Amino acid sequence: MNFDFNLKKKSGIFIDQQEKFIFKFYLDLEKNINKYKLTNEYKGNYWYLSRIKNKKIKNLEIITKQNKFNFIKIPYFHGRKYKFWNNFLNNKKEILIVLKHYKKVWPVINKKVPYHGDLTLSNIIFNKDKVRIIDWENFEKNKLWGLDICYFFLSLIILPCLSNKNNKILMNSGDNFILVWKSFFKNYDFEYLNDPFFYLKDKTNLQKNNFLNLISKSLKKEINYILNEANK
């Protein structure tokens, strides 16, 4: 049984690989933020598991323990995660798998859809040509189609910069970013595309410590230049 605990978030998981379930728990439930995340985790997982027609959705449940902490029992998916600090924009095959999964799972475009809220490599599990999206604690309803992919693309170019602490875009990342951005958003004119930084901060429940709030002015300027090129 694998165990992981995030002291800062006061949350953790343990994995029962034999029974094929993940148990995610939150402490300090008297704090509204953790109650909010707990509720979102359940709602987001329920929506997602129903969309991918996971038969174990019937086992999704919240287990209360004396009002001190709650567990959420979630079906387990075996696979691997990629490190968010790597230059993942070179991994075009895996990116295409994520995009294909999004188009299959999410409803038709040009309407508002459920929003994961933190779609980064840390929250995607890969297994050959299949993926599963996890950690739905930032789940929101009724956001514009494709906003999660916009966020995902930004994370691929920004998080490696923040990890390396040099605030410089890695080699080839800019060109690859433009390619994947254009491949997904070509012929679309969503409100968030021209200024995703402003839109994500103004229109979503972005956490204060989110990576979009941590980038330097110089890095933001460089990424805005790349976005302008991508939107041509």
Give the strand order, joined by hyphens, for the main sheet.
Answer: 1-2-3-5-4
Which structural class fits the helix and strand makeup? alpha+beta
The CATH topology name of the largest domain reads Transferase(Phosphotransferase), domain 1
Q: Count of DSSP helices?
A: 6
Q: What is the β-strand count?
A: 9
Concise overview:
It is built from six helices and nine strands, in the order E-E-E-H-E-E-H-E-E-E-E-H-H-H-H. By secondary structure, it is α+β, with helices and mostly antiparallel strands.
Architecture overview:
A hairpin with a 4-residue loop joins strand 2 and strand 3. The chain has 6 helices and 9 strands; from the N terminus they run βββαββαββββαααα. Strands 1-2-3-5-4 form a 5-stranded antiparallel sheet, covered by helices on one side. With 232 residues, it is α+β, with helices and mostly antiparallel strands. The longest helix has 20 residues, at 32-51. It folds into 2 domains: 2-75, no CATH class; 88-230, Transferase(Phosphotransferase), domain 1 (Orthogonal Bundle). It has helices at 32-51, 92-105, 147-164, 173-185, 196-203, 217-230; strands at 2-6, 11-16, 21-26, 61-65, 69-75, 112-115, 124-127, 130-133, 140-144. The chain is globular.
